Amino acid sequence: MIGLLSYLVFFSTLAGILAIAVLGLNLQWGNTGLFNGGVVAFFGAGGYATLILGGTPQGAHLGGFDLPYGLALGGGILIAGLLAWGVGLLTLRLRHDYLAIATFGVAVAFENLVRNAQGLAGGASGVRGFERPLSDLLGAGLSYNIAFLAFVLTALALTYLGLERLIRGPFGRLLRAIREDETAARALGKTPDRVRLVAFIAGSVIMGLAGGLYATFYAFISPQDVLPILTFQIWAMLIVGGAGNNRGAIAGAFLIWGAWTASGWALSRFAPVDVQLYTGSIQFVLIGLVIVGMLLWRPQGLFPERLVVSQSGQPDR
Amino acid sequence: MTRSKTFSRAGLMLGVTFVAASLGGAAAAQSCTTKIGAVLPTSVDWGKPIAATAQFAVDQVNEAGGVNGCQIEMVLRDSQVDPKVGVDAAKALVDLDGIDVLLGAVSSGVSMPILTSVTVPSGVMQMSCCSSSTVFTGLAEEGKTEGLWFRTFATSGVQAAMGAKVAADQGYKSVAVLYKNDDWGQDIGKLVAEDLASLGIEVTGSVALNDGQPSYRAEVTEALRGKPEAIYLALYPKEGIAAVREWISLGGTQNMIVANSLKSEEFVENVGLQFLGNTLGTDTASPRAASADAFVASYTEKFGGAPTGPGLANSYDAAMIALLAMQAAGEGASGAEIAAQIGRVTNPEGMPITADGAGFTKAAEVLAGGGDVFYQGATGNVQFDANGDVSAPAVIWSFSDAGISEEEYVSLDDVNAFMAGLD
């Protein structure tokens, strides 16, 4: 029983961290219509910066500033925001698939940067030497994981509540107006370029937070953590959950990550020994089928976006 | 069932491990199952045989009666070479299957988060066949692995030192280094450059090669610029073939020194044996040991082909040593207790035992009598240092019509002496 609890705590922590990243993407894609194909770059920037700022000194590369955890995580978020600012200025004039390709390129460039810049980020062997915050006080076992889960869930709840407030207010309406018809928004005197940049940075900052928590949880990050597969996974979570709906984004993260891990567990337990060697391939097929099925039969996701008329007295559109 | 039994026994056994070890043999004949975990990249081509080889070792031990009278069930999970997936799989194995021993993972980028966030906090012994990063040594030196981490893949240090030794023995004055741009390649590329420099050999350039490029002309041209007398290659066959073809066609020297990753028929066939006459390779395995031959023979019988893929012998040894340590620690031992027994089963003063079912049976008898054993593995006589790293004897080999020919055998003592002579 204690084992099951311990595993569920561990699982929920990672799912919660991924859910935060999905919320960030939902702000960009679901609400503003920005196709960010480089989620891992901002996730990774947050993770790497947190470890470099908060880690113990390491001989081989930059880092080991040993800052208090709050500052390290804040620094990680800041770096992710700065990266988004630079990338946003350069690429946000692009539309749709062009933006996707450009941001995907940024993510690949980021991975290659950390893989090669040994003096900056430890190269392919990654960054370690990170003391998990409060580990002296809480020990290393289940109690620590429960405390960390509480921390992650708090961050998730704050992000969710903040985003809900944001998108229900005038700014949210502006984002959706730009998403639906940018020219019309411009005609009404809005400045879509600036608003798109703000939404892009805000979403990326949230991804940076997720990355910082992720790196804290593992106390390690390497280029293998920022491969394009993560972007794909986070997109799959948003599509299955329902783009444009924050609750859907969270549900999608838990469901897809749950399916990803549960299918591996079930195959290792119930598949015959001869088939065991192929469980990985079978798993990819199963997950692919789930996503294809979703897109075919419920493309709006499990929790579709609810479009509401937020000003009374206006006729339905 | 087994788990709750294991847990209640764990309480009883605390502090009386040695008594338990001596009773272990007598407790045989029960039908019970002990689980061990494996997290390996089975969705990758070269990962499947690594997992199959670990299972092969488990099968041999089961045929010989199992560990402490219990059959071993290896629960295999796929890491998909994704750290998140690998860590989750490891955590599920520890929490849901109640394992005390974990085999894996292959890439250092997966093994490391498993170690820091799963096995060390849970007190589970982790033994990797194939993770080579020097980062693990640093972590162990800081005491953060708590003695739970082992790997049967010799660190890149031995390979790099042997590469430098070949260059010195051949009298090369200048060498260029080409390495694969991953953790293994970066480590070995850096180490070999340092070793060469400390032997007074000029390193004319160190060039990284990224995966999956159709051509390496730019990288090869850069390496050619220093006009080196010889070239050191820490590459895998895929990029090795492309780079060496371009190297030779651009007039590069045929004096090549290669790491064990290029010890493959694919490489010879695609480059051409006529260009590889002056190529010398290094490897940490010890084909001199009868046990290594025995492994090759039993593997060939089981799988219908020789174990030529990367990491197979290491995977076999990782599984076998883990099972021997479980036998030595006795029933219901914790991960830390099992890890503490590793020294007893790889003790050079102990009774030598072979790497097969019969060897396991014999080891069980010796261990039950309170003696130590010296495991003669598929990779030679494996010995771990305080950081869980293996040093190993080395061979220097060359390509020939017959396949791979051994040129020189460097014993463990000679390897250690040579490495001590480098800075």
3D structure, described in words:
- The complex is a heterodimer of chains A (317) and B (423).
- Chain A contains 14 helices and no strands.
- Helices cover 73% and strands 0% of the residues of chain A.
- The longest helix of chain B has 18 residues, at 312-329.
- With 423 residues, chain B is α/β, with parallel strands linked by helices.
- Chain B has helices spanning 2-13, 17-24, 47-63, 83-96, 108-122, 135-141, 156-170, 183-198, 217-224, 237-249, 265-271, 290-303, 312-329, 335-340, 342-345, 357-368, 412-421, and strands at residues 33-40, 71-78, 101-104, 125-128, 149-151, 174-180, 202-209, 230-234, 256-258, 279-283, 351-353, 373-377, 380-381, 383-384, 390-391, 394-400, 403-410.
- Chain B is globular.
- Classes of the chains: A mainly alpha (317), B alpha/beta (423).
- At the A-B interface, helix 1, helix 4, helix 12 and helix 14 of A face helix 3, strand 2, helix 4, helix 5 and helix 6 of B.
Write the layout of secondary structure elements.
The complex is a heterodimer of chains A (317) and B (423).
Chain A: H1 2-31, H2 39-54, H3 69-91, H4 96-116, H5 118-121, H6 135-138, H7 142-168, H8 170-180, H9 182-187, H10 192-218, H11 228-241, H12 246-270, H13 273-276, H14 279-297
Chain B: H1 2-13, H2 17-24, E1 33-40, H3 47-63, E2 71-78, H4 83-96, E3 101-104, H5 108-122, E4 125-128, H6 135-141, E5 149-151, H7 156-170, E6 174-180, H8 183-198, E7 202-209, H9 217-224, E8 230-234, H10 237-249, E9 256-258, H11 265-271, E10 279-283, H12 290-303, H13 312-329, H14 335-340, H15 342-345, E11 351-353, H16 357-368, E12 373-377, E13 380-381, E14 383-384, E15 390-391, E16 394-400, E17 403-410, H17 412-421
Parallel strand pairs in B: 1-2, 1-3, 3-4, 4-5, 6-7, 6-8, 8-9, 9-10, 11-12
Antiparallel strand pairs in B: 10-16, 12-13, 14-15, 16-17
Helix pairs in contact in B: 3-13, 4-5, 7-8, 9-10, 10-11, 13-16
